[in-house]
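Render this sequence as a predicted structure.
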Amino acid sequence: MRVYVPLTLAGLAEAHRTGELGTGPLVAYAVTPALREWYRSDDLEELEYAALSRAALASLRLLADRAGAGAGAGAGASATRRRVVVAADVADGAASAGPGRRLEGDAERGTEDDAASLGEVLLAGPLRLAKAAAVHVDSAEAEADVSAAVEALAAADGGDDDAQSVVDGAEDHELLWYATQEIPNLVGPGH
């Protein structure tokens, strides 16, 4: 199963240093039945793109959380506001759905009413960076729009249409694809 793990550049630098994407459980995104139903497509490539897009939004939320905690300042990867998503292949049993949700092949029909969690899955333990198939990262040209979206996210969540337009501006930027061998170049020297 292909999963998409939202990160920040600082999180990617830490994963590069330790060889693991967090300690678990990890929130990731995948093609779930609810995502398939919401997107209304049987094209796996389109569905995986939708899961990647959900993970990119979760990455934006991680950036907003860091900014809210005062961790947005500093130098290097920790100060750069770019969305980061790691695509990885895991065994089907490695991902589980939360309460009321189901994955492909689950016998019970669950519901996934919360639109924010469409495609969301949990990985119980740490995910080795060696399992990564690719890394998707915003370009430098997207940084201004991503920074503006980070600042507008809380207001957009509260229903502010103008703020939602700013968030959508960041989502208009396509994430660039990088091979895992390029991670050292993405996180910079010394990471």
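Summary. Residues 8 and 62 are 7 Å apart (CA to CA). The radius of gyration is 16 Å.
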